[in-house]
Amino acid sequence: MSRRRRSSPATASPVEDENLLPEILLRLPPEPSSLPRASLVCRRWRSILSDPDFLKRFRRHHQKPPLLGFFRANSMSTEHQFIPVLDSPDRIPAARFSVPNNSNKHWNFIGCRHGLAILVNMWLRQVMVWDPLTGQQHRVACPPGLVFDPEVHLVYWEAAVMCADAEDGHVHGDCFSRPLKLVLIWVIGYRKAFACLYESASGLWGDIVSMESTDAMLGIRPGILVGSALCWVLCGGNVLVFDVQSQHLDLIKRPVDCPMNTTSYGFVQVLRMDDNRLGLAYLSKLTILLWERKSNCDGVVRWVFLQKSIQLEELFPHRMFSRSKKIIITGYDEDTNVIVLSTIGGVFMLQLYSMEIKRICKGGGLCLDNFHPYTNFYTTGKASYIFTLHEQTRVI
């Protein structure tokens, strides 16, 4: 007599498991093409990948958004444009991020942070926060106490935007509708600096704070965020520091052993070092010298020269400097620790940890424009750009 074998119940495939599939998709790489390509598999995958809650979890899982490119800005023209830095299929077309008010010469592109860009128009006395992914923008009138004529007074100004969301586990990247803070800083007549903080939660500017310096304050470079402080380096290497929490404005003198002078605009850059410490890079011919703010045994914070100088001639392509040794610093990304260097042979980005170097613009003369880094998660839920996958309509 033969016995019939009992058939075991069918085991669901991992991709059919309602709870397991989203966990698998969370682990897709954070590069721009990952989610759009996966969303072509089927309707179910597309539904999961476009869900706002999934996208929030995706950002939280990866924590650190990729560097998508740089906004190239020239204060003397309206030619503000996006320069992508990723390779295909993650490379985003420059036209995808079209800077608003690009035809108005009075709008200056100032910088990016937490997936948002900030522009300033001192003639209109307005600050604009712009989300490159969605195109949304929000304008804020400058503080009432901002009194000067940009056509008469010699004024340097800078601004910064930052997400102020205190929600536990919040990862920056979808911050336009979150609480924001704006900081406006300006220097009049070389000697007096002013700063003011705006908070979107209240819709109000705080008090204008100021400080005077015996050293001339020239040519403010784009700022970086170090802990709760926004830091801007001046031509001579001194650093303007505005603490967002205490709303205190201060000036940190340059390292005493640094050979820079007041004409060093393109040769000096503030850095965000490990443990949220302030660093300083000085470009001396073809060598980058580094300093870091550290506390000594008495608790006194001072500049410390780091012995690990960077020899650029060893990193750049062979014979890059055979015609000209001219090189300047034109940008820096605080999140990825990438510095942007302009040469006669093109514009390059250098990762200061790995020492990897990559050309992002071809040559044609020394470029004096500022390159503002843009990092974000380019997700299907927010982005309207469709990646061309060799004309495939589905992924197998």
Automatic annotation (TrEMBL):
InterPro entries linked: AT5G49610-like_b-prop (IPR056594), F-box-like_dom_sf (IPR036047), F-box_dom (IPR001810)
Domain F-box: from-to ranges: 18-58
Lineage top rank: taxon: Eukaryota
TM annotation in the entry: none
Protein name: F-box domain-containing protein
